[in-house]
């Protein structure tokens, strides 16, 4: 090979017709090379300059037919591959691509600024750039909503939705939803019923899972993408302990005592996205010393805890919380975590497990610690069994903290003070964020938990079994040291860590 090899510029590369019959697309991506035919139907293998020896040796052994070798800039090759990948995915949306030419739908879609910039499809650029920006910003959910003007894109950042962009045109909106459906392997022709799916993307070497919910509406279909960044969660969970969650000292001590008990039930309650699972993971991380058998059943398993047997719910196969919990009890556990109490059967088995010598950690949806009691009674659980199985209940919310880069002292308006139930501002240090690049203009950065804790005692148990009025039960709990969510949130405002508007958003005014 004495003669200099021909070089292909970007224009020449895009003049090639891809030939995946001789070089599979995933192989081309892995080896940073490409195969295509020119206008004379001559097969070319284009390699980076200088060509890696391993690539040349591989080509000599595996290329399916004679070819010519050419060189190109590595960046140009990767841009060509990114463009072809987008075209393959777009073709797949219309069902015209099959066989060896199809991209590996089970793999993760690579996201990078270079690939997005080189893509010729405006729809693919829109979807991929939205995913890229959302992952970089650390949002939890992406909402793509149809309205009469086109598509509205919203991010849920720190628990709050915000509009980030609008795209005019019903056609573009429809195509963007179709693109999401293709990535999640959903039926693009079905637009009358809800659909659920999932897919993966790869950003800067890490894989991120996205769960997709498609919902038909008046103006077209809406999509919500729940982002589950397992590496980020792993970093957060690694070494996580209860004191990292922001609970005050009294609640922290009570919760730690309850989760270290040998048996009984500890309930964590709050709305979706209030950090219940993170609290349970932190508790399990503290009690996971290797001397006890710990088993969890979750929907889904969000992070793998070392030394813990974790079972994912699979309702399509018949593995529900109730059925899984019954099986767990035959597996000689010491401590059990149930992701959520959803039905009567699961509630009754969990209570019986706590009464028979197991520590049960679980969650249930309720507004506060007192509503949990009514929720279990509504599910048909015997009050006597419930109160003697129950060690304590934690209700929590996540409150956005003021941005440390742009927060300044601020005096709230008198109307806001009155609406927030603040009659005496003595001792308060009111602060609020003005909005900056660090907080994406919101004035808030990060969240911490506020909580109320109900620790069961004999007096409370007797009152609940006797079905005393809830007002008397609450009075007894307050005498025992239970403080409301609202009181905990007000303390954050007093210290200048958040705002009255924020605590009014997540807690009721007393």
Structural write-up:
The protein has 510 residues and is of the alpha/beta class. It is built from 19 helices and 20 strands. It has a 7-stranded mixed sheet with strand order 5-9-10-11-6-7-8. A 7-stranded mixed sheet has the order 14-13-15-16-12-17-20, sandwiched between helices. The protein has a 4-stranded mixed sheet with strand order 1-2-3-4. It is elongated, with a radius of gyration of 28 Å.
Short description, anyone?
By secondary structure, this protein is an alpha/beta fold. It has 19 helices and 20 strands. β3, α3 and β4 form a beta-alpha-beta unit.
Question: Layout of SSEs?
Answer:
Blueprint: H1 10-15, E1 17-18, H2 25-31, E2 34-37, E3 43-48, H3 53-62, E4 68-72, H4 74-93, E5 109-111, H5 113-118, H6 122-137, E6 141-147, E7 150-157, E8 160-168, H7 170-183, E9 195-203, E10 206-217, E11 220-228, H8 230-237, H9 249-259, E12 264-269, H10 276-287, E13 294-298, E14 309-312, H11 321-329, E15 335-338, H12 344-355, E16 359-364, H13 369-378, H14 383-389, E17 390-402, E18 407-409, H15 414-419, E19 431-433, E20 444-455, H16 458-465, H17 470-479, H18 485-494, H19 500-506
Helix pairs in contact: 4-7, 6-7, 11-12, 12-14, 14-16, 16-17
